[in-house]
From TrEMBL:
Assigned EC number: 1.1.1.2
Family indicated by similarity: Belongs to the zinc-containing alcohol dehydrogenase family.
Cofactor or coenzyme needed: Zn(2+)
UniProt GO molecular function: alcohol dehydrogenase (NADP+) activity; zinc ion binding
Record PANTHER family: ALDEHYDE REDUCTASE
Organism per entry: Glutamicibacter uratoxydans (Arthrobacter uratoxydans)
Catalysed reactions, as listed in the record: a primary alcohol + NADP(+) = an aldehyde + NADPH + H(+)
Pfam families with a match to the protein in the record: ADH_N, ADH_zinc_N
Name recorded for this polypeptide: alcohol dehydrogenase (NADP(+))
Length: 347
């Protein structure tokens, strides 16, 4: 086994602290990764605090992982020592159900295996990327292309694919008007990616405080949703709306911003239900949908796309002893736009 330094939540509601964890021995199809950077996702906070259900503790979060291959199993064919690689929100699936065979491992009928907080095949609990090392089967390791620095690439393994997948599936591109609700960790990547796809991009945010950032990132328009006139002015304007916020919204008001056959796709995950007025859908043949990350092949496609268009996340690199402070700042929306842990500070 490999001994790794890590930061873990000892219990729900308690501050994360240093811990030593054991990584499994490298099996025939495994890849040992020397983790260089790990992004902090809002879902890390929800999970370790028990807000999305009971957890086993101590728990090491982190599913935005970028690093270097340190060792490979004797049957590994995709990677070699020294390769630049990443790991996202899942580290395994059954591989045999129809969804897995279609490249949608995230929807595995038998349950995809989350990067942390999931019961692994041997009965242990998976531990995430706030650590110096991780061992992952080669089929769930991604190649990080040259041209993407590892620190700005780490958040792409969640924030990047979470926004890329619905933008691609619902046809963002030239001639399409796309609105992004919220300009945070997810929203800022959605703006960058939608603009690179050729769409006309509008940011819908509570206020105009981040307007300069939104336009810099690629949006052509920026509106404050706390202004009632915004919803009047933009009625029936958009082909696609990507909602990135994890808070309750008046969904019907946003649906009224869609053109006929438009779609609103939720990628944020608020704990509260989101009521929808059926007439807001029926009146314009509109759709209200959801999307969760992407499969491994699509995630690799996203990384290649981002490298081609020079799209990394906007980040603030922190040391491990700043993780708890960073959590508080995430909750206060005081980050532009993703915290990334330099895992060298774990040693």
């Amino acid at each position: 086994m490999t001994l790794a330094k890590a930061y873990a939540a000892p219990a729900a509601g308690e501050a994360l602290r240093p811990i030593d964890i054991e990584r499994r021995s490298v099996g025939a199809h495994d890849v040992l990764i020397d983790v260089k950077f790990a992004g902090i996702c809002h879902s890390d906070i929800h999970t370790v605090r028990g807000e999305w259900g009971e957890q086993s503790y101590p728990l090491v979060p982190g599913h935005e992982i970028a690093g270097i291959v340190a060792e490979v199993g004797n049957a590994v064919t995709k990677y070699k020592v020294g390769d630049r690689v990443g790991v996202g929100c899942m580290v395994n699936s059954c591989g045999t159900c129809d969804y897995c065979e279609a490249g949608d491992e995230q929807y595995c009928r038998n349950g995809m295996l989350g990067t942390y907080g999931a019961v692994d095949r041997d009965g242990s609990i998976t531990q995430g990327g706030y650590s110096t090392h991780v061992v992952v089967t080669e089929d769930f390791v991604l190649s990080i292309p040259e041209g993407l620095d590892l620190d700005v690439a780490a958040p792409l393994l969640c924030a990047g694919i979470t926004t890329f997948s619905p933008l691609q599936r619902w046809g963002a591109g030239p001639g399409k008007k796309v609105a992004i609700v919220g300009l945070g960790g997810l929203g800022h990547m959605a703006v960058k990616i939608a603009a690179a796809m050729g769409a006309e991009v509008t940011v819908l945010s509570q206020s105009l405080s981040k307007q300069a950032d939104g336009l810099r990132l690629g949006a052509q328009h920026y509106y404050a949703t706390k202004d009632p006139e915004t919803f009047e002015k933009l009625a029936s304007s958009f082909d696609l709306i990507i909602n990135t916020v994890s808070a309750p919204l008046n969904i019907s008001s946003y649906l009224d911003l869609l053109r006929v056959d438009g779609a609103m796709v939720n990628v944020g995950a608020p704990a509260e239900p989101l009521p929808v007025n059926a007439m807001a859908l029926i009146g314009g043949r509109r759709s209200f949908a959801g999307s969760m990350i992407g499969g491994i092949a699509e995630t690799q496609q996203m990384l290649d796309f981002c490298a081609q268009h020079h799209l990394g996340a906007d980040i603030e690199v922190i040391s491990a002893d700043q993780i708890n402070e960073a959590y508080d700042r995430v909750l206060a929306s005081d980050v532009r736009y993703r915290f990334v842990i330099d895992t060298a500070t774990l040693n």
